[in-house]
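Consider this pair:
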Amino acid sequence: MSSQVVGLPNRSESSQQKLYEFAKMALIKIFAHPYATVCDLYCCGGGGFGLDNDAQIGHYIGIDVSSTGIAQLREAWESLIQKKPYPSEFFHFDPCLENMETHLKDKTNQADIVCCLQHLQLCFETEERARKLLQNVSCLLKPGGYFFGITPDSSTIWAKYQKNVEAYHNKGSSMKPNIVPNCIRSESYMITFEVEEEKFPLFGKKYQLKFASDPSAETHCLVHFPSFIRLAREAGLEYVEIQNLTEFYDDNRAQFAGMITNSVPNLVDPRGRLLPRSYDVLGLYTTFIFQKPDPDIAPPIVTPILQDTSYTHDEANWPAPGWRDDEKDGHTEPPLVLPKINDQKGILGPGPADLRFPEAL
C-alpha cells in the first residue's frame, strides 16, 4: 500500500517516520476490507488512509481541525485523473470539541472503522476533550466496528523519566537541590517535560518530543491509559489491546516481511530484527484497539475493571501496586483477575519489556 497522499508533498524520509509508516500501514492492512466505511480522524499531514489509490475500502470520511489541510485533500481528490477508487468525503472540525452528529448527520452508526493515527495524545489535554472524542467515535461506529490507532507510549516515556528522577535522588547532593531533571535524551530524540514533577497526572501532562532529524519539537500530552480505557468504556467502546510498537513489529514481522523490507531496509538486521536504534525509536509508540460491541453477534468484550468513575487521588500516582482498593482490604468480588503486566501484554501500553512497570494499576 502506498503511503503517499496524492497531490500533497511527500513526507520526510527520516528513520522514525519510516518505522511509523510501517506500523501505520500494517494496522490498515489488518483492519481494512473492500467494503469498509472508514472514518479517519486528524487525517491531514500524512495521517491514515488519505487518498491512497490502493486502499482496500469502500468509503472514506476524512476529518481534521485544519481547514487548509482539508481543502488540499479535497482538491487533490477532485484532481485525480484516474478513476477514483472509492467515494470520499471531507469535513473540517475538531472531533474532540464538537459533536459529530452536527456535521455527519447521516453517518452515525455507519463506520466499520474509525482510526486515529496521529494527534490522539492532544485530546488528553483535558478529560472533557478525551471524553468528547470517544463519544464521537462511538457515535460513528456501527456495532462490531473497530477504533484503532497509534499514539506515543506514555508508559515508556514516563518510565524513562522516572529513571532520571531515581538517578537524581541517588546522586543526592551532587545535583542542585529541589530540581527534578525534566529531560530525556537518546541518540535519536530528546523529550522535555514542561513542568517538573514526580507524579503522573491523569490529563494535561505536557512534554516536547524532538527527533534528531527534525528542525523543531512537537508538543504532546501523556495518555493515561487506565483513563483511556475507562472513558472508552463509558462511551460504549470495549478494550481489545494496547500494544507497544516493538511487540507489534515482532508479532507482524513475518506477515509483513515484504513491507518491512521496502519501508525500513536500513533499520533492521538481515533477519529483519530491529537494530537497537530502531528499537529505541519504535518503543516510543503504541497501538490501541477498541471495539463497539455487537450484542447480536457475540457477547461484548470484557474491559478490565478499573476504579469507579469517581476515581481517587491514588490513581494519579500510577503505577500503583494494586488493581482495586476493595481487593486491598480483602474484599474480593472481581469477575476478572488480572495477572501482572509482564504476563498480560499491552494492558497499559507497557512499552518494551525492560521498561515495564512491575504490576498493573
In short: The chain is about 30% helix and 20% strand. The CA atoms of residues 71 and 90 lie 8 Å apart.
